[in-house]
Amino acid sequence: MTSEHLTNHQIRLASRPVGLPTAANWQTTTEPVAGPAAGGVLLKTLALSLDPAMRGWMNEGKSYIPPVALGEVMRAGGVGRVIASEHPGFGVGDVVSAGFGVQQYLSLAPSDFKRAGLVKIDLGLGTLTQWLNVLGMPGMTGYFGLMDVGQPKAGETLVVSGAAGAVGQTVGQVAKIRGCRVVGIAGGQAKCDWVVKELGFDACIDYKAGPSAVRDGLKAHCPSGVDIYFDNVGGDILDTVLTRINRGARIVICGAISQYNNTTPVQGPKNYLSLLVNRARMEGIVVFDYADRYHLAVAEMAGYLKDGRMSSREDVVSGLENFPAALTRLFTGENFGKLVLQVAAD
Amino acid sequence: MTSEHLTNHQIRLASRPVGLPTAANWQTTTEPVAGPAAGGVLLKTLALSLDPAMRGWMNEGKSYIPPVALGEVMRAGGVGRVIASEHPGFGVGDVVSAGFGVQQYLSLAPSDFKRAGLVKIDLGLGTLTQWLNVLGMPGMTGYFGLMDVGQPKAGETLVVSGAAGAVGQTVGQVAKIRGCRVVGIAGGQAKCDWVVKELGFDACIDYKAGPSAVRDGLKAHCPSGVDIYFDNVGGDILDTVLTRINRGARIVICGAISQYNNTTPVQGPKNYLSLLVNRARMEGIVVFDYADRYHLAVAEMAGYLKDGRMSSREDVVSGLENFPAALTRLFTGENFGKLVLQVAAD
Question: Per the confidence metrics, is the pTM higher than 0.90?
C-alpha cells in the first residue's frame, strides 16, 4: 500500500489555556502522510481516549511527563490499525494501541515503538472502545491505583468519585469483586442509577443534588466509615470524605478534575489533619509505573467482561474536528461513561 | 507515709479557647490528697511535658483521644515519684512516668495503671527531663514516625520542621545516625545554629528570615530534592516542601502547630497534587499505636545519649502556676528545646 494520497488532519496546541480550554487554544493542520520509515509502521487512528489528564499536559511546567509543546500535535492515547508495515512483528490490518496524538495517521520508526507504547491488541478480549476504557489506560489506572495503593480487603468500604467515568467504573467494579462495599459519587441521577443498577455498586451519591448531598450521602451509605477513598475530583468532595475516613484509611490521589481549570490556586484539603487523627494515608498514583504489569490486569479484567462480572460504558463522539468541543465535556461532566473520540470507522 | 496534710494544686480546663489559649480558659483548684487506693499508688508530680498536641485536646469533638472535659484537670504526661504504695510492683521513691495531669499529686488505683500509662523509669538511661523528651512521648513520636512511616534509607534527604523542638531533635538525630542528609527548619538563627552545631544536622533553615527563606533554603540545602519530610507545622511550610519532594517521597504528618490556634479553617496544602506527580505519600502518625515497642526505642536512644551520638535540650519552666503562660510559649515559638514544666524539685 502506498500512502502518497493520504492527508493527515491534525490538531495542535496553539496556546496554553487559562481556565477551561477554548477553540483559540487549538490549531488545525494538514500534512501529507509519508510511508513507514525503514522497519517501521504506518498507523491509521480509529479512536482516541479523551482524559482529564490532558488538561494537565496543556500546562507549562514540570509534571510526571513533559507538557505538550506549543505547536505540537496534542498528545492522546488511542487505538488504530496498521495500514503499512515494514516490521515483521506487525502486519497490515493488525489493531494496535499507541500514543497516536490527535491526528488521523501516525508513522512510527522502530526506535519510536517503545516511547509510543505501541502494542497489538486483541479484539477477542474486548471491543475497540473497551480497549480505551477498562482495558486501556483508565482501566490500568483504576486497577493498579486500587490494588497497589488502595489495597482493598473484603468487607471494607470503598468510595470512588467520578464513579461513572472510565477510572471510576473500573475501581468500583473491581472493588466489588474483591468483596468491598462500594459507594460511588457522580454528577446527576442518571449516572448514579446506572452505577448502581448496571455496575452493581451498593450506592451512588449525586453530588449535584444539593450542598450537603455528599455529607449526607456518606453518612447514610457508609455507616461503618470509609476505608478507601479513590479520588478523581479533589476540592470539596475530597474534604468531605476526609471527615468520614476510618483508622488506617487509604486515599488514592488519582486526579482532581474539579481543580484542573482553576484560575486560582488549587484548593488544598483543609481536613488533611484527619490523616493524623486516623493514621491514614494519602498517596498519588501514575499509571505508567505499572506498565510491566498491564498484561496481567488486562487478562483479569477481560475475564470479568467475558463472564459478565464487569461491564463498561463509553460515550463516543465522532470526528477528529470535534476534539476541542468533546474535551470540554469532560470538565462540565456532560460525558456519561468513558469519553472516546471516534476518528475513523475502520 | 500518710498524705492527710498534703494539698493538691490543680489546673483545670475552664472553657474552650478560641485561638490562642488565655488565662480565662483555666481554673485553679485545690484538693486534699487522699492516700493510695487499695493496691494503688500515690504519686508526686516532678515535671510535666508541655506539647503542641495539648491545644488539640482542649477542643471539643472527636480526635484520636477524647477532648479534656470542661472542669477536668488538664491532661499532661509527666514524670514523678512514688510517695506511697500499696502495690508490690512500686516502692516509695521509685521514679515513674504517667499521665499525671496538670497537678501536684496523682492517686492511681491498680485498675487505672494501664490507662494512665504508669511505668517505672530508669534515671540511669537518661535524666528526668530527657524522659520527657528523647526518651518520652516526643521521642517515641519522632522515632516511630520516622522509622515506620518515613522509612529512612541511607543517602536520602530528610527535612524536619520544628527542628529544635522535642520531636524534631529526635527525628533529625536518628535520621543522621541512619545515614540521611538532614535539613532542619526552625524559627530564629539561635535555634538553627544549635541544630547544626550541637545536633549535627547538615543544615537548618530559619523560616523567620524572610518570605522566601524556606523556598530558597530548600533549594540550597536539598540539591537532590526531599525524600522524607517530617511535618510538625503544616501551613505554608508544608506547601513549600511539597514543591521539592522526590518521586516516592514520604511526608509524615505529625502535627500542624501553625494551624492549632487558627480561628479560620485549617490551611489545606494547595500543592497536595505533588503527591500524584511524584507518587508520594502523606501519612499521619499517633504515638500511642507504638506503645508495645516504646522499650525498644528507649533502649536504642538511651545508648545514643550515652555514647554521645545524640544529645537533647530541654527548656524548663518552674512552678505549676506558670502552666498557662508556659503553654503559650510553644505557640509563639519562644521555647528553645523541649518545653518542660518543673512542678517539684524532688
Answer: yes
